[in-house]
Amino acid sequence: MESCLIFILLRAAVVLAQTYETEDFTVPYMVYLQSSPEPFKIRLGVYQPSIKNKKEQILSNSLIVPYPQFNAHTLENDLMMIKLSKAAAVNTYVGTIAIAMEPLTSNDSCFIPTWRWNAYRNQSDPDILTWINQHALTHYECQYMLNQRVAVNIMCFGQPLSSISEIMEVSAAPAICGGRLHGILSWSKGSVTLGSEAFFTAIHPYARWILKIINSY
C-alpha cells in the first residue's frame, strides 16, 4: 500500500492566514490519504490511521492537478493539488493552514509531523503519530547534502546518520514553520523524525500556481 500525507492545499484552505507557535502543535490531527483499497479516500481529522473514529470526515476527490513541470526522474517540482469532492466541515479536528508566500528565514524552527508503523504488515495503516522540530539547512548546506545533484526549490533538513533506521514512515510529511506550510517531503534517507537527511519541496515558489488552481476550480 502506498500512503501519503497531505495538508489541505484544497479550495479555500490556503487563504486563511493564522499564526501558531510550535507549542500549539502538541496533538496534531492530520489529513490522511488512504490509497488502498482503490479508489483512494481522503480522511480528515485523523490522529491514528489504523483506528477509525467518529470525528473523522471521509471524502473522495473530484480533481487531481500535478504541477505541469514535475520530473519523475529528478523529483523536481514534486507537487500536486487535490480537490475534495465536497467542502469539508471546519471544526476542532479539521482546520486550515496558510501556505508560505516568501522564503523561510534562517532562524525559524519547523514542525514536521508524520505517522509510522509499529510493525508494518501488508496494506496496513500506520499506527503512531510522531514529529520533530528542526531548523532548515542553509542553501549551501543543502547543496552539499545533495552531493552535486542539481535541484531547485528544495528545502533540506537533518544530517547524515551513522546508521540507517529501519523505521517505516508515511511519506509527504509537511514542514510547518512560523504557522505556515513551507515544505512537503519529497524524499529522505532514513527516518525524518529521527533527524535523517530529508528533502522537501519548498512551497513559496509555487504559491502563485497554487492560488491560480484554487481560483480556477
Automatic annotation (TrEMBL):
Q: Could you tell me which residue ranges the Peptidase S1 domain spans?
A: 1-215
User: What keywords are assigned to this protein?
Assistant: Disulfide bond, Signal
A single Pfam family it belongs to is Trypsin
Q: Name one GO cellular component term.
A: secretory granule
Q: Which GO terms describe its biological process?
A: proteolysis
From the record, give the transmembrane residue ranges. Answer: none
Q: Name one GO molecular function term.
A: serine-type endopeptidase activity
List the InterPro entries.
Peptidase_S1_PA (IPR009003), Peptidase_S1_PA_chymotrypsin (IPR043504), Trypsin_dom (IPR001254)
The domain of life is Eukaryota
- What SUPFAM superfamilies does the record point to? Trypsin-like serine proteases (SSF50494)
> Does the keyword field hold Signal?
yes
Q: Where is the signal peptide?
A: 1-17
Q: Which protein, by its recorded name, is this?
A: Peptidase S1 domain-containing protein
